[in-house]
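Reposting from the mailing list since nobody answered there.

I have sequence plus structure tokens for a pair of proteins and want to know whether others read the tokens the same way I do. The first protein:
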Amino acid sequence: MHLERVDDPGDERIADYRSLTDVALRRKLEPEGGLYMAESSKVLARALRAGHRPRSILTAEKWLPDIERIIGDLDVPVYVVSDHVAEAVTGYAVHRGMLAAMHRPDLPSVADVLEGSRVAVLENITDHTNVGAIFRSAAALGIDAVIVSPGCADPLYRRSVRVSMGTVFQVPWTRFERWPAGIDELKGAGFTVAGMTLGEGAVSLDELVAEQHDKLALVFGTEGHGITPAAERRLDRRVTIPMMGGVDSLNVAAASAVAFYATR
């Protein structure tokens, strides 16, 4: 690695980190395809294991041994800054030791991620924390892939990556180009498409499990209104988690963990 010490927050070498929003990073023309931010040594390690390439790393002196252990002889500039400079550049306190500006990989096709027997589909989920938490549960409970709708929050948004603990690099994922037409693609690949809903006429999660589907796609809708009517009309099954204690619903991330565990 190439160590370069930077004392000026305005230094152009660290322009990738200078208060850029994730939208700006995605649209950054150089490098082609845009960037995303990996925060913490654990997240960087998982990104590297997944084959992602760092453009540079921003860190404090005390974290250099960890960085060296993770990247080895990888040819990448490592910018060493004080905590004050890091906060002045990024606009927030960097508590987890380092940030890495990573090249965004090309997403696989939907067909390429449908080789397993269980997939999760996220429709228009807008909270990045929920997206990250769903990915973490998907990794922990053996979901083979995650597919997100065009309107869903970006799994490579910094907060999503952090909440997922880097499992967004571990679970294969991609984005539908068209939705809800993507449901037909799932059915064409042999999946039973089951949407988690509070609507009337839904079967219980236990009933879905008892049906023993060979291939199952679990659809989770947006935090406020759930699955859209257009998507719901295409579902093979409408499924609910029975509630007790006067509670009518779970947060979508919690519901996904329950559904992943029940159908494992």
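The second protein, same order (residues first, tokens after):
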Amino acid sequence: MLCLPRAETMNQVLTQPIATDQLGLADLLEISDLLIRRQTFRFRVASWSMYPMLRKGDRLTVEPVSATSLQVGDVILYHNCGQLICHRVVALDTAGAGIRIITKGDAAVACDAPLLPDQVLGRVVGVRSSWHPLGNLTMRIDPLRTRLIQSVAQGLLALQGLRFYRRVMRPLLSHCFAYYVGIPEGRRWFRYHRIGGRGIPERLKGQQRFHLVAKLARISVGSLNIEAGPEGCRVTAFYVRIPYRGLGVASQLLAFACHLASRSGAGKFLATVEAENSATLSLFDKTGFRPLTGSEPDGTAVFCRDLPG
């Protein structure tokens, strides 16, 4: 199976100023938008399942396609269970109520599970081959390299679960994280500016929502959404990827959010937290939020912080 794991890079230049963003598998909506807006989408092959037609590292160009126009032999990009997969169409099943698409990797023995039309993202229309200095030997070495990387990653994850490790790594990595604020452009797109750059305060005036992103080596590690309302600004989504928790990312995102909310003219900053989320409850308590009396209809707690005028 030719798929892009969550940490794999996808070299697509976005319309936002962060031209070196790495697009992850959580961005399927953004991939669809890129196909609609630009008519093409480019990414790199991440495995050998389509060998010999495609090699790992080859760069593919994908264009939008309707499932009804697919033909046997087409190579398509689709998503399945959190993975992006690029395989060949070997059959089209029209016996049922709707069309089902049967795919298979050229190097695979068996076919994949049937696809529904809404899983198809596009059809491959161009291939730019990559140069492999060791030729076919690369294909034999790559599985060993992958297993070694997985073993190292598992060891690092085990270390990240230790409080001592987080205490040591927090000051070392604190200067490596970059933070960006996204200002809306249209209904779904944001234009991002690195925090600390020039001209950001002027762009905040009159804005009703913001999107904060934390990055490490151009990989998104956390995000926070803010929306303005009659009561003040409110956190609508707040997330930090598990390997980067305990390293100060959440605290820094929240501090920037409070500052931006204050600069935009809000007097209060509100957040709703699930009662069982003890880590987030502790974070809001340490950063000057106070719990409000009562709770939301679903039983979650509401926190508030007064902002300077």
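Reply #1 (J.P.):
I read it the same way you do. The helical segments are 28-38, 137-160, 163-173, 200-204, 249-263, 278-286.
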